[in-house]
Design brief:
The chain starts with 10 loop residues before the first strand and ends with a strand. About 40% of the residues are buried. It has two domains: about 90 residues, no CATH class; about 240 residues, TIM Barrel (Alpha-Beta Barrel). The protein is about 30% helix and about 15% strand. With about 350 residues, the protein is α/β, with parallel strands linked by helices. Strand 4, helix 6 and strand 5 form a beta-alpha-beta unit. The chain binds pyridoxal-5'-phosphate (PLP) and iron/sulfur cluster (SF4). Iron/sulfur cluster binds next to loops.
Length: about 350
């Protein structure tokens, strides 16, 4: 059963705690200093939290993880805040819903080498890091066996041999987890090896880090990324205009100056961005930050996330209404990932 009651968070307003993060450290420090406890998250936001066993179980299945830079964009005292809803576990995550499974995209069947997923012609996806800076409750990889797909640099060589041997692959996609959660040293070494594969033309990075910890876009990152001979595309992941603050805009400016094309993918999420005004504001704000909307994904049926689902008919109506409002280049493509298909499937 999918519970569609608006929000089942047991948060009550209490006196907000004084902010504890006046002087954030560098991005690695910020990555370590993430909030890992749901009760602490609520305390920071001036919300009291009384955990139902289901919500606690959600946290046990897929732990809370929120960087302070992201926390600073969440409205205090509002249990319905669209950013909070992306990171706070709910009791509904414990519901067993038919059709919702651990590996909805059947990625485990397309992993020819550890850390490599090759499903689509012309491009292959590398799981360049097992971790993320933030844990999004709706994540389709929330049950992904990262431990089995976290090759060492030596094992990477074998994974890279797969790319070297297949000259139909023109694009390497670094994904994760979040590839930018990896140290620059490691990323630089990986990109150097990719640069050396003659048939590769493009380097694509799927990441949420410049959004959730904008300080990640520092000089060291721009050096290895800007220095690559490959054409560079970064696909960010932003679901709501409120995620884009001035620090995110500044990070985007730096990336663009380094020759990176910026795109965005969002997930259509019940209670977070499932109305036309919110989606229109998101597209407008993305473009202000120099980012083009790319995909709007319907939810992948991963167990624990059914309460985020927006039915297909409603999704189509929303996008039709959005088209009446926006310039064509501000329109994301509404897609679903269907296991076994050779591309994302337009709705
Ligand atoms: C989504 C995805 C891609 C990229 O698809 P595009 O349509 O090019 O954005 C590539 N490989 C895998 C395994 C994917 O899931
Ligand atoms: S950043 Fe992406 S991969 Fe990481 S938890 Fe969020 S949706 Fe999943």
């Amino acid at each position: 059963m999918i519970t569609r009651t608006p929000i089942a968070v047991h948060c009550e307003e209490v006196e907000p705690e004084a902010p504890v993060f006046d002087t954030p450290g560098d991005w690695q420090q910020q990555l370590r200093d993430v909030i890992r406890d749901p009760a602490e998250l609520c305390r920071h936001l001036g919300l009291d939290v009384e955990w139902s066993s289901g919500a606690r179980r959600g946290h046990d299945l897929f732990p809370v993880r929120v960087p302070l830079a992201y926390l600073s964009r969440i409205r205090r005292g509002d249990p319905n805040d669209p950013l909070l809803r992306q990171v706070l576990p709910l009791g509904a995550e414990g519901d067993d819903v038919r059709g919702y499974v651990d590996d909805p995209l059947e990625e485990r069947d397309h992993t020819p080498r550890p850390g490599l997923i090759h499903k689509y012609p012309g491009r292959a996806l590398l799981i360049a890091s097992p971790t993320c800076a933030i844990n999004c409750r709706y994540c389709f990889r929330r049950h992904f066996p990262y431990a089995d797909n976290a090759p060492s640099m030596r094992e990477w060589e074998r994974t890279l041999d797969y790319l070297r041997a297949d000259d139909s692959i023109q694009e390497a996609i670094l994904s994760g987890g979040d590839p930018l959660a990896s140290p620059d040293r490691r990323m630089a070494a990986l990109v150097e090896r990719l640069d050396a594969i003659p048939h590769l033309k493009r380097l694509r990075i799927h990441t949420r880090l410049p959004v959730v910890i904008p300080d990640r876009v520092d000089d060291a990152l721009l050096e290895w990324l800007g220095g690559s001979r490959l054409q560079k595309v970064m696909v960010l992941h932003i679901n709501h205009a409120q995620e884009i603050d001035e620090a995110v805009v500044a990070a985007c400016v730096r990336l663009k100056a380094a020759g990176v094309t910026l795109l965005n993918q969002s997930v259509l999420l019940r209670g977070i961005n499932d109305d036309v005004d919110t989606l229109a504001a998101l597209s407008e704000r993305l473009f202000e930050a120099g980012i083009l909307p790319y995909y709007l994904h319907v939810l992948d049926p991963v167990s624990g996330a059914a309460h985020f689902d927006v039915p297909d008919d409603e999704a189509r109506d929303l996008v039709d209404a959005l088209r009446q409002r926006l310039a064509g280049f501000l329109m994301p493509r509404l897609v679903r990932e269907v296991p076994g298909e050779r591309s994302k499937t337009p709705l």
